[in-house]
Write a structure and sequence with these properties.
By secondary structure, the protein is α/β, with parallel strands linked by helices. Helices cover about 20% and strands about 15% of the residues. The radius of gyration is 16 Å and the shape is globular.
């Protein structure tokens, strides 16, 4: 038995881990009897089908202002694609603040058209993030920032 209250998830970082999570949630929603890879398909009445994505934050302009279901496939993401058309929860990707720079492996992509650092792109403030989280109804935030990032 599934709960009636959805889990509204916000993602910080729309990289490979986020891509795999979004694809996986769609897979298990479409195949509720497939528990392959799930250690606990039901936790206190919650199932994967109760997970819905509320919003996401990233600093890469190729992902900002895109639907999450599309942004997860934007370069430089290269995780395995096993669900080409994830379900659409209406989640959009918003600009996130850059607290301590951009990961070294993204430096080759660092220009105003790609990374939200200066130029015509702008980074978000903490107040912007709080506003989006409140408006989206997010109940849980998953932090996929690179290890050591602020």
């Amino acid at each position: 038995m599934s709960t009636s209250t959805p889990i509204r998830v916000a993602l910080v970082g729309v990289g490979n881990c986020a891509s795999t999570l979004v694809q996986g949630v769609s897979h298990y929603r479409r195949h509720p009897d497939d528990h392959t890879g799930l250690m606990h398909p039901d936790i206190a009445g919650f199932k994967v089908s109760d997970i819905h994505f509320a919003c996401a934050f990233d600093v890469d302009a190729r992902k900002i202002a895109q639907p999450l279901k599309e942004a997860i496939f934007a370069a430089p993401n290269n995780s395995r694609i096993f669900c080409r058309n994830p379900e659409d929860d209406g989640a959009m990707v918003f600009a996130g603040p850059i607290g301590d720079g951009v990961a070294a492996h993204l430096e080759k992509f660092d220009d105003a058209k790609r990374i939200s650092v200066g130029g015509s792109s702008r980074t978000a403030t903490l107040a912007d993030v709080v506003k989006v989280l409140k408006e989206s109804g997010a109940t849980i935030l998953v932090n996929y920032l690179p290890v050591g990032s602020q």
